[in-house]
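Feature request, filed as a ticket because there's no other form

It would be nice if the structure record came with a short human-readable summary line next to the tokens. Right now we just get the raw output. Example of a typical job, pasted below so the devs can see what we mean:
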Amino acid sequence: MSINRRTFLGLTGLAIAAGAIGGWQFMQRGSHGPLLLSARNDSSGRHLAVGYHLDGSEAFATEVTERCHDVVPHPTQPLALFVGRRPSTESYLIDTRNGQLLQTLTTPPTRHFYGHAIFHKDGEWLYATENDLSEPGRGVLGVYQLQGNRLERVNELSSHGLGPHQLLWMPDGETIVVANGGIRTEAESRVEMNLDAMEASLVLMRRDGSLISKEQLPEQQNSVRHLAVASDGTIVSGQQYMGEVTDSVQLLAIKRPGQVFQHFPLHQAQLQIMNQYTASVAVHSELRLLAMTAPRGNRFFIWDLDSGAVRLDTHLPDCAGVGAVTDGFVVSSGIGRCRLYDCRTTQVASQALQLPAGLWDNHLRLA
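Raw output as currently delivered:
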């Protein structure tokens, strides 16, 4: 996370401007288009769970107790879980129509959230990455059942690794891919305890917890963190390197169907500007594009998913979350304006969105 977003120096929210964004085509859900869900703070440091339409209109801004990380929209109902940032013990189930806080979900005393979760396609089950504090770093997936407007923890599964971070569904909707960051942390701490013995991995597992595969990158201290999955089953992961600052290590990896987990080659100049840290990744399956934010380098990238060709390499201060829309990608920022990137033609075009500027967290979802 960028230091700029933590300090909030000199930042204030901007007024929301109404009106449609001319020239952009959005997948419509109601008259305002898709709903952007994310965690952010205001200029006084309050933690907010927010929903904004891309035309700039606010759906809700709900104050919550702890800082959130990712957001999990329910597949059929107007609900979303705003997941607590590691090592939070709270997440927040919110009605996306009006921002009503329906439940503060808490972990058992010996668990904490790692910032990510997923709803099953049937909407009844939710899986969240968690830390087992009785054996710090041992990754588990908390299994929660939605009963009315409340989630109840009913089981847990092994993540088959240490420090699980993001998890997503494969296209079959039954297989889970998990990014095990490989780092041990203890209760109420973000201090890494095992950098000399990290065990990062990419895991495929079934919903019953059984392991399908477990793969690792060659660099031991290359923490597998964030994921995107294409409709054909291609998996992309963004890494955060925990080794020496002088090391040059590939920070993007890919697992194509039937192939091994391996580096997605990046130019040396791109690696240097990333400062060994990536935040969010997204795939646009229809346009066959891959996008990634690198906030420490103030850089936003788009590549052709199949050829690896660079489509965009641009300065974007403290870029944070990224998500696919019909025309391309929406990107948020910790200190600047959220932007829309139109990727339908060879020349990528960008436009600022009339949303509050700055203080956005590392992830966004479009519902």
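Something like this underneath would help us a lot:
The chain has two helices and 28 strands.
The CA atoms of residues 273 and 297 lie 5 Å apart.
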